[in-house]
Each structure stands twice: as structure tokens, then as C-alpha cells.
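Re: duplicated header lines in exported C-alpha cells

Our pipeline writes sequence and C-alpha cells for each protein into one text file. With two proteins the header for the second block appears twice in some exports. Here is an export where it did not happen, for reference. First protein block:
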Amino acid sequence: MSGHSKWATTKHQKAAKDKARGKLFAKLIRQVEVAAREGGGDLTANATLRTMFQKARDASVPMDTLERAVKRGTGELEGVRYEAVNYEGYAPEGVAVLVECLTDNRNRTGAEIRAIFSRNGGSMAEPGAVSWQFDRKGVVTVPKSVAEDELMTVGLEAGAEDIRDLDELWMLLCAPSDLQALRSALEQGGLAIDNAELQYVPSTTIEIGDENGARKVLRLIELLEDHDDVQTVSSNFDIPDKVLEALDV
């Protein structure tokens, strides 16, 4: 999936820019807070909280900020109460889109997400209409400077189910429950880690070879990702390298 791999690299570069301007902080803090409320504030006993906490630390969110988020989640400190809600829909070209949100007002967020879809050539779908096309996976990305043989040796022994070439990165997939063990094994093996998180990974992809169609899809995805309540946007499009280059993204 050469086009998809180039887009993965492009998306990674965009995430780095988001991180640099601090846009990611509020979303990560919200994830930590919700994880603590749903599973308790003990990092050793709450695997989801441990994953979100580490993700936030990787993005350089201050420790005291995260500790306060955990306390808000467990009720030790007062704060806005967020709930998790997913929305499903289709972008132009029939691309499946799964949107994960954390919101303090479900009605407001739902209306705003619906408006983004409808105003940009997409449409909302009923629950379950899109999600069956994705698998929940632990995803670890590793710099290409790491040798593939070494990565396979360590990764497969630690629960990695698949290793994919993302042009400038390696991507390892594992069961959600194996994410922390895989990350720990790579770190203990002295292998650099770029990112580790839970993602919805598409089981199949739709190739978009038309520049106009690709531009519309990317526009909708970008607007969804920029919404304050949106945590992640998963989709199943694959744009060939030559189209991405023509779009200059």
C-alpha cells in the first residue's frame, strides 16, 4: 500500500506540527481524565489509563498537569465531566470514517460533527455501519533507522502480529492488550520508539486516484481532526504517491 504508507508518513509529520504548537495537549489531558474515571486512578491496575498517560508524557505534557487530570477523573478534584462517543460516516469517494470524541455535551458535538460531514460532501451513518470495517489494534511506530531483522526478532516475540513498511517508519500491530508489553520489549531491547497508541486500523482500503476526490477527502478529515472534541479520526482511504505529491500535502 505505497500510497497509504506515504499518507501515514504525511499524517505523522502533521501530528508533529500539532504537538509543536500545543494543540494536542488538551485532547491528551481529556483522554487521561476519562480513562481515570472509567477504570480508576491506579496506573498499574488501569491499562487504558497507563496507555493514555504514557502517550501524554511522550508529547511532553507536564506531570503535574496529568496528575490533576487523574484526580479530576477519580473525583478528587472538581472538573467538567466528559463522556466518550463515536460517530460513523462516509467521506467523498465512499471512504469510511470513524470519529472518536470526548465531550461534555453529546448533543452539541453530534450536531457539529454532522455539519462537518454534510458541508464537505460526506454523510453520517448509523452506529455499526462503518465500524465493522476496522479492527482495534495496538500500533507502535519505529524509525526506519532500526533494522527490520532486529525489529522482527524483538517485536514478534513480544506479541506483534504484523510489521508494515510506512516509507519513513516501521509500523507494528498487536492486540490492544499487548501494546504495553510490546512497547516495553522494544525499549528494553534498545530500539527507538516514535509513537505507541491504540488505533482503529482498516481491514481494507479504498484507493483514490483522482486529485479532486483526494482533496475533498483530506479536507473533510482535516476539519474533523481540528474539532476540539475529536480525539482520533480513522479512515480507510489509500491515496497513491503521485496524487499526494500533486496535492503537495
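Second protein block, exported in the same file:
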Amino acid sequence: MSIHIHFIGGGNMASAIIGGLKTNGFEMSHITVIEPDAEKRTQLSATYGVQNLDTYVENLDSATCQNIIVLAVKPQILQEVCQNLAKKISRKSSPLIISIAAGVQCDAIASWLGGYAAIVRVMPNTPAQIQAGVSALFATPSVNETQRLQAEQILSAVGKTLWLSEEHKMDAVTAISGSGPAYVFYLIEALQEAAIKLGLTLDEARLLSLETFAGASLLAKQSAIDIQTLRAQLTSKGGTTEQGILALERANTKGIIQAATEAAARRANELGTLLGKG
């Protein structure tokens, strides 16, 4: 039985996943994107060769094709999308629903789908656009092992995957990996500005800041040594790095970063509750 993936929404994350699937050899004729924006439909067709529709088809699943439906719309319109979708799917073929809409919990999605609960909730992040992302996944009990594997394969096309056993951990994931790229960009921005104040040109500051973050991250990823030890190895007694680290410690930088992630997690929880009320 063939697999057909229907993307409802053709924005950046949907495009990133489709691009990753293409790179991994998935048959593009087995992907349909339902997207009301004509410009986005044209771009997706030209770039990937996928099928495009401007509205829902009458039946998004059938006995002759195993269907996966990816909800790739903004959280604010997910309720309306799901309520329309509930009229189009048949429970006979048990399509897998994958939601990448941030914050909205599986119970709310199932309710809007009229009680249909074969749902995998996913929190990807923006580096998925270059297939270097990390996605956390949570499956409801209605999702079978084959569907779990299918969800993992789809998200693996854009980076690493991590299964969560408890859905409430999604708030922490949102705060760390979902919002995390913005924190990294903020730190790169700060290092770049500091470099300019020390007399380097913008081009020099940009190159040194970007390559330092990229190289250090790659070293940490590939090294068998833990992060704390790697940092300690660079911090020679009485040296320049030690003075920099002491300044960061005096400013309570770790505490500030922890406060930032806690604030992001709280907001994720608040938005999930708000969006799920319907």
C-alpha cells in the first residue's frame, strides 16, 4: 500500500519538511499541499513538483492509500482547520495526523477532529530549514508502531528526533529547542557587537562570531568530553578566558539564561491552554 502525505499549510516549516523528504528520495507525486495562497502553491510546485490544492478535497483518505495528514498551519486557525478536516476524513483507513502547530495539545486537536485521536504532536525548530533541526515528538495511545515510525521518518528528513513519553514536556522543548535558535542568534549578535567595540570591522566581527559558534558547537557535538570539561579546558588559570568567564559569572549569566527559558516555558503553557479552549 502506498503512502500519501497531505500537508495542510505550505509555509516555511512545511516547505522545509518537503525539501528534506525530496532529498531523502520520497516520491514527490505522493505529496499534496493544501494551501490557499496561490503564490506559495506556485513556488512549491516549481521547487518540489508536489501536487497543490487551494482547498480541502472531499476525502483525504481511502482504503487504497495509507494517508498521513500534516497540520502545518498557525495555531490560531488550527481549530477551524481541524473542524473542516473532521468532515473529510474517514476512520476506516485510520490516517495519521501529525501536528506541527506550536502549543496546541493533542486532546484539543482530537476534540476538534470529532474524537479522532491518532495524533502525533511535533515541535520542530527553524534549523530544519537547512535539515539541521531537532524535533520532539509525542504520540497519543491511538498511534500504532507503524505510524510512530512513519512520523519519525518524516521528521528525520529535517534533522534529529526525540520522542517524549509525556506531553507536558513539550513546554520545556518549546523553551529550549523551539526558542533556542533565537537565544543563539542573540548571543552571536552580542559577541559581534562586542567585537566591533574592540575595534574589528563588521565583516571581521561577523566572520569570527559565526565561525566561533559554529566550530564550538561542532566540537561539543563530536567530542566525548562533557560540556563543563570542554569549557574548563579552555579556562587556564590567570588567562584571558578565565577573566571573561569570571565576568559572566559576576553578571549571573547562567541564571539569566535559566530565567529566559523558564519565561518561555510558562508562555508556552499559557498559549497551549488559551489555544485549546476553542
